[in-house]
Design brief:
Two copies of one chain form a homodimer.
Chain A (H helix, E strand, L loop, with lengths): L1 E4 L4 H12 L5 E4 L10 H6 L8 E3 L5 E3 L1 H11 L10 H18 L5 H9 L5 H26 L12 H15 L8 H11 L2 H5 L11
Parallel strand pairs in A: 1-2
Antiparallel strand pairs in A: 1-3, 3-4
GO biological process, one term (chains A, B): L-phenylalanine catabolic process
Protein name (chains A, B): Glutathione S-transferase
Pfam families (chains A, B): GST_C_2, GST_N_2
Chain lengths: 214, 214
Amino acid sequence: MQLYSFFNSSTSYRVRIVLALKGLDYDYRPVNIRVGGHRDPAYVAEVNPSAVVPAIVTDDGVTLGQSLAIIDYLDAHHPEPRLIPEDPAERARVLELASLIACDIHPVNNLRILKYLQDKLGVTAEEKDAWYKHWVAEGLAAVERLLARYGSGPFCFGAAPTLADCCLVPQIANAERMGCNFDDYPKTMAAYRHAMALPAFAAAAPKRQPDFVQ
Amino acid sequence: MQLYSFFNSSTSYRVRIVLALKGLDYDYRPVNIRVGGHRDPAYVAEVNPSAVVPAIVTDDGVTLGQSLAIIDYLDAHHPEPRLIPEDPAERARVLELASLIACDIHPVNNLRILKYLQDKLGVTAEEKDAWYKHWVAEGLAAVERLLARYGSGPFCFGAAPTLADCCLVPQIANAERMGCNFDDYPKTMAAYRHAMALPAFAAAAPKRQPDFVQ
């Protein structure tokens, strides 16, 4: 399998965690989104029409983009360990938390948005920082409420990692890098720290990737 | 079942389409997000800790937020018609397109983001309009490429509607309201128009909801 990834991309990081948890080997294909590598015509035409990272190309030649679709696919084809539960009640909670992170938090703070704010709207560094922290704070407050109501540690939902943890970890790691404060999210941070202690989560971290640069 | 919804919310609209396609009855519970109804303490505590719309409360008392999680749940419990295919190859394409819309297009243009741009960053009406149209154009270009590569009409993927159509229709309807141009997306618009001709899609439209106002 090939994984098209950028070391600092949270959505790539989600898929790297899943591949590591399942023990799947893959060729790492770096796509430098800082210089527009995701818009390279050959990449868009042959690998990912969405023109984003991540994407996978399986050994059977299936190309697939969008981290949540990729993870659903990997979970069906390589079900050990199962990351999207089959039990309907557990499944609903895992997908709810994953969607909250993937739809309500991550998209408004990714690189292209921050670049647009800076380059096209001319916001100051302080305004950009406030924007980032505002959406993280609003989103993590919701994560914390969901975990308070439905969560059961030590992972987000019970004794084993799920898709929820695979989405949570990159989001928190990103927010740590941006200097956010996490005092109000004790359950969220407990789940994060628990996951980070696992070798699979550690191996997927940005600094462990071949395209990592400071 | 109860559906907590705002007439103009694209994510609520997705769930309304699914409920209509499956022929499920529900009580419509309006949440006016324009005046912060989604942050009402009783709503957050009792219905949706995410503090957004939509949310459902089933007849068994299950409360669930996040449109994609709700649709997955409804599709498992009321599988006629199936909207998230079981066949792995079809399923991957449907989830990829749905994720593209739900993660890459919708979140950066919803009400809270446009309000922040206007109220906190003081962008002009022209800048806000350009922001909206920029992300729609970038997103729909990706939708069009995905459909060109993997789609098969008359719906996004074949002869019956799927989750992809349930996400596409509200996104296009929203973009139409905002005056976007669709000339570059013929396959996307053909799928949109085909879906809009179905009574279930028409019944879910904002103007058909009890909380609709001009």
